[in-house]
Amino acid sequence: MPLIYRSMHADGGKPRVGPSATMLGARVPPSEHADLPVESDNTVRPSTGGMSVAPTWRDLPPWRISKRLRGKVKGATGSAEVYCWRMGNGPFVAEPVANGLFFRPDSDSHGVVEPDCAMLLAAYQAALAATCDQWVIDEE
């Protein structure tokens, strides 16, 4: 499984689950910044997008890195309420992440965790939420 990072709110020592840029989940239409398209029958498909992640927390956009980390990352302006979380330990290459999920890098500093097959949006969001126990805070 690739090593991936995401900035998210905490909820009881785990990432907060939800369809937000700072939660464990994907933004969907009608959000202006939807992470992937949803078909009329609520199906999502591989290779169309997914939840954004990075290979290191320092590769996250500065507005996603908590301002409390300004000493480590110049320009960090994110909410003091978000933390940098990591999951996995392998190279930043395309491969399965968890049941129903596939990681696809789209550059050296960004990738998406997307559905591994056509599935209902609710199943995709549930698959992302099921990884909750695998994420740990890493801001070193």
Question: What does this protein look like?
Answer:
The protein has one domain. Strand 6 and strand 7 (101-105) form a beta hairpin. The protein has one helix spanning 121-129; strands at residues 4-11, 14-15, 43-44, 51-53, 82-87, 95-98, 101-105, 111-115, 119-120, 136-137. The model has no long low-confidence stretch (mean pLDDT 97). It is globular and about 45 Å long. The chain is mainly beta and 140 residues long.
Task: Sum this structure up briefly.
The protein has 1 helix and 10 strands, in the order βββββββββαβ. With 140 residues, the chain is mainly β. The strands form 3 sheets. It has a 4-stranded antiparallel β-sheet, with no helix packed on it. A 4-stranded antiparallel β-sheet has the order 4-8-7-6. A two-stranded antiparallel ribbon has the order 3-9.
How do the helices and strands line up, and which of them pair or pack?
Layout (H helix, E strand, L loop, with lengths): L3 E8 L2 E2 L27 E2 L6 E3 L28 E6 L7 E4 L2 E5 L5 E5 L3 E2 H9 L6 E2 L3
Antiparallel strand pairs: 1-2, 1-5, 3-9, 4-8, 5-10, 6-7, 7-8
